[in-house]
Design a protein that fits this description.
This protein is mainly beta. The protein has two helices and 19 strands. The chain has two domains: 107 residues; 114 residues, Beta Barrel (Lipocalin). Helix content is 4%, strand content 58%. It starts with a strand and ends with a strand.
Length: 230
Amino acid sequence: MFKIIIITVLSTLLYACTNNSHTLEGQWFSPKPTKVIEFKNGKVIAHRIGSEEVLELAEYEQLTDSTYILKGEKINKGVLTITADWKDNSFSLTEMSEYKDKVTGPFTPVPKAKLSDITGTWYEHTIDQEYETSIIITQRELSYDYDSLEINHNNKTYSRMFTPNIPFTFKDGFIFNEIDPETGDTFSYYLTSYNDKEVSFIGQYGNFWTQTRSKNPSHIAIPKGYTEKK
């Protein structure tokens, strides 16, 4: 027996004023947890990023610009509400229960990049209480060079790392997979946004990082008196 779920889309004031038509058709991505929801041909499919396993499957019907009905055997019990912010082009899911509402998201459109969009040289600089790090990535379509300099200001030491031609696979316009040649373990990370000047990623364990495009990047200067960590 099918379970019935009402999805209500609460749009922003901008949407109400302009009366533009919006749609959930397509793939939407949420890094917390790493999940993709796809609205296509009257069906909703949810799965983990990089996995073909279906977590939820439902049929949906749009009743108005702001209301959807879903029904499917794999949908959880309760009422599922979508709150959409069309100005930011995102939405969040709220599963209501008698104990505590569970919110997932926000979901944003999958980037759908081509490898040619992100080839080139990228630079990243991070600093915290102990470490300062600069990273230079030379990105090609199926491999990249990793060049880093890490400075420990507490111990007054620094270390360098350079790894050339790291291979990866690319799927669905935003999924990167690297396989460790020694262990066979797979490390996955996901493109969350990109433009001509900046790319942002999230790793499979939830860590975020951003890189900026640079024609001739250089590492941070090593302070005088610091020694190389062997």
